[in-house]
Amino acid sequence: MRRGLAYAVGLSQLLFLSSAPVRGEVFTDPSTGFSVTVPAGFAIGSRRKDSNHEILVDILSQTGQPPVAGRSEALCAAGFRRNPPGAVSSQAELNALPALRERVAEARTILAGQGLQTETVESIKSSEFAGFEVVSVPTSGPDHRNVRIYMAIMDRVIGRIDIVCATTKQALPDALPIFRAIRDGTRPPTR
C-alpha cells in the first residue's frame, strides 16, 4: 500500500511538472525595444512591412487552435505605431473618458469603412495605457458570417500597440483568453 502511494505521488509530481506551462517565444525589436511574448504553443512569425506600423509581426498557432479564419497563416499580428513628438501631452489625457469615447467612435467608423460590423466593444482596464478591445464581423467575403476579428488598441504617449486576430465565430469564446494573453504580452518601445 505504501509503495503504491509513493508511486502515485511520484507519478502525480511528474505529471504536474510535465504539464507546467512552457514559456512562449519572445520577439524584441533591437532598434526600439518593442516586444511581444506569446504563450506556449504559439510562435512569432515574420516581421512585415506595413505603412501604418513602425513594427508589425505575425503570431502563429503551432497547434492549429484556435483556428485561423481567412487566408492568412497567422492567427494574429502585433504592431506598434509611434506618435509624432508632442501629439499627446500626457497619459492622463489619453485615459480621460472623453478621449477614449472619441477613439472608440473613430475605430467604429474606420472599421465600418473597411467592411467590418462592430459586434462588441470593451474597455481594457490599465493605468499604463488607454485601451479597448473590439470584436467585429466582416460584412462580405467567403463564409464571412462565421468569421470574428478581435482587435486590441492600447494607446500610450509614445504611441499605439495594435493586436489583430481572426478566428471562427464558434472558436471565439475559447480564443478570447488566448488573444488577451497575447495582448498582455506586448511591451511598448523603450527607446
SSE layout:
Elements: H1 2-18, E1 26-28, E2 35-37, E3 42-47, E4 55-61, E5 76-82, H2 91-95, H3 97-113, E6 116-124, E7 130-138, E8 147-155, E9 159-168, H4 172-184, E10 186-187
Antiparallel strand pairs: 1-2, 2-10, 3-4, 4-5, 5-9, 6-7, 7-8, 8-9
Structure write-up:
The strands form two sheets. A seven-stranded antiparallel sheet has the order 3-4-5-9-8-7-6, sandwiched between helices. 27% of the residues lie in helices and 34% in strands. The longest helix has 17 residues, at 2-18. It is α+β, with helices and mostly antiparallel strands and 191 residues long.
Describe this structure in a few short sentences.
The protein is α+β, with helices and mostly antiparallel strands and 191 residues long.
What structural keywords apply?
single chain; 191 residues; alpha+beta; Protein Transport Mog1p, Chain A; 7-stranded antiparallel β-sheet; 3-stranded antiparallel β-sheet; 4 helices; 27% helix; globular; disordered N terminus
